[in-house]
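Deliverable D5.2: sample structural annotation.
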Amino acid sequence: YDVIKNGNVIGEIILNELIKDEKKMLSLTSDVKTRFIFSFSDYATETASFKDGIMMYSSFYQKQNGSDKAKKMTILSGQSYKLIDDGVSKLISCGPIRYNMLLLYTNIPETIYKVYSDNFQKLLDIKKVEENKFRLTLPDGNYNYYTYKNGVCSQVDIERTFFTVQFVLRE
């Protein structure tokens, strides 16, 4: 995906999906460099692994302007998930997680109403807003819009108070 702001490519996102038998592994790496009032760089990597459709593990790492911003992991532990946020861990009881944000790139969420966010370490609401377009509501009140073509995510609109960025699938 190209990361586009105001018509200019400011970075890229690389998504990999590996499926073997009943296991699925996804990884996403993003690298963005731009100028607002000052230079800004953002590097992030996310991973998720599933077995028989259940999330076993996920991670989120982000570095902004050369400094670590977030290191988070979610690990299935019996009937609970262990959440680790910059070394601090806690257990949460919830049903098995079957859909996280990385799956939004590879699977249209037709019958999905909640998506797990590795960054926020919680389930977020997603709803269909028009044919092949879905809105993910973030805890801070912002939105991401996911648009699909032939069942694959073709564009993500990241809408924030002061800017909008698009991720556009390279043809």
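Annotation notes: The radius of gyration is 16 Å. The longest strand covers residues 8-20.
The annotation will be released with the project's public dataset once the embargo ends.
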